[in-house]
């Protein structure tokens, strides 16, 4: 296994996440896309930490752990906003909540 | 030699599992099926972390993502999707345009990965690390990551209070 194996997997995950964010018409599916993007990012941190630095240097792994924590906080706030939007509009399709549109 | 063969076989199995289930996450129409595909993806990424000798990171991935975020997502599905909204709607024009943008990004990333000579052919040196939990704990609690750790804990508190405040039912003042 080389570094590039991990980078390719991570690139595919990132692209799929972007694709989900761009095409899905449901806020929760968009959240899933964002989670895929964050996962690919964390995988990159861990892979670079393993291959590009001395073996006992694991700073990249700690950064990835902080990334997981941030993802958890983001998901909680995201779902709270979705619940509030659902209560207000009765839908969670992002293109139907356009009250501010001029 | 035999062991290395089995190891790379397992690696490719995990890689395939991760990518295939991620494809399912973005293509399946039923949102509950997408959520369960996401669970398989997260487990696959945890397996890849194990191959990177990141044991604590793999455990954290399973606990926080599969045990926390995925349950949260399923709760969100349960509370916002009636029986009719379970299927995800997709517009054709958006599908084509989004697919084009995603394809361009993928080509860009692959170009960068294959054309950076600095990254080429860096092999796994096969060394086995000590369990990383102790090192991570020391670096976070008494090393250079103490300040980020405190900042993150405050951020989590803020997110907790904010989420509770946003999602509660509105209480009107009676004056």
Task: Describe this structure as you would to a colleague.
The complex is a heterodimer of chains A (102) and B (175). Chain A is mainly alpha-helical. Chain A contains three helices and no strands. With 175 residues, chain B is mainly α. Chain B folds into three domains: 86 residues, Four Helix Bundle (Hemerythrin (Met), subunit A); 26 residues; 46 residues. Chain B has six helices and no strands. The longest helix of chain B is centred in the N-terminal third of the chain and has 26 residues. Classes of the chains: A mainly alpha (102), B mainly alpha (175).
Quick take:
Chain A has 102 residues and is mainly alpha-helical.
Shape of chain B: extended
Number of beta-strand segments of chain B:
0
Q: Can you tell me the CATH topology of the largest domain in chain B?
A: Four Helix Bundle (Hemerythrin (Met), subunit A)
Quick check: average pLDDT of chain A? 89
Q: Ends of chain B: how far apart?
A: 79 Å
Task: Walk me through the topology.
The complex is a heterodimer of chains A (102) and B (175).
Chain A: H1 3-23, H2 27-51, H3 59-89
Chain B: H1 2-27, H2 31-51, H3 55-80, H4 92-115, H5 133-142, H6 146-167
What labels would you give this structure?
heterodimer; A: 102 residues; mainly alpha; 3 helices; 75% helix; 0% strand; elongated; B: 175 residues; Four Helix Bundle (Hemerythrin (Met), subunit A); 3 domains; 6 helices
């Amino acid at each position: 296994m080389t570094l590039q194996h991990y980078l390719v997997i991570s690139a595919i995950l990132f692209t799929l996440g972007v694709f989900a964010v761009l095409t899905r018409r449901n806020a929760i599916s968009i959240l899933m896309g964002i989670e895929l993007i964050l996962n690919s990012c964390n995988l990159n941190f861990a892979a670079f930490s393993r291959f590009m630095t001395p073996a006992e240097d694991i700073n990249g792994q700690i950064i990835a752990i902080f990334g997981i924590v941030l993802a958890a906080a983001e998901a909680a706030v995201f779902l709270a906003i979705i619940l509030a939007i659902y209560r207000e509009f009765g839908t969670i399709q992002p293109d139907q909540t356009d009250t501010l549109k001029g | 030699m035999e062991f290395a063969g089995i190891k790379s076989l397992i690696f490719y199995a995990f890689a395939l599992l991760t990518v295939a289930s991620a494809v399912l996450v973005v293509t399946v129409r039923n949102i509950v099926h997408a959520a369960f595909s996401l669970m398989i993806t997260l487990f696959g990424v945890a397996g890849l972390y194990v191959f990177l000798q990141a044991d604590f990171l793999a455990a954290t991935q399973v606990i926080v993502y599969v045990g926390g975020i995925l349950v949260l997502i399923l709760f969100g599905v349960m509370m916002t999707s009636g029986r009719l909204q379970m299927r995800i709607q997709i517009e054709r024009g958006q599908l084509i345009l989004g697919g084009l943008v995603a394809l361009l990004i993928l080509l860009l990333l692959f170009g960068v990965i294959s054309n950076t000579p600095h990254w080429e052919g860096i092999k796994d040196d096969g060394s086995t690390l000590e369990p990383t939990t102790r090192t991570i704990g020391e670096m976070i609690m008494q090393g250079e990551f103490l300040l980020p750790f405190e900042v993150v804990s405050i951020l989590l508190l803020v997110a907790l209070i904010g989420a509770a405040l946003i999602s509660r039912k509105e209480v009107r003042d009676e004056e």
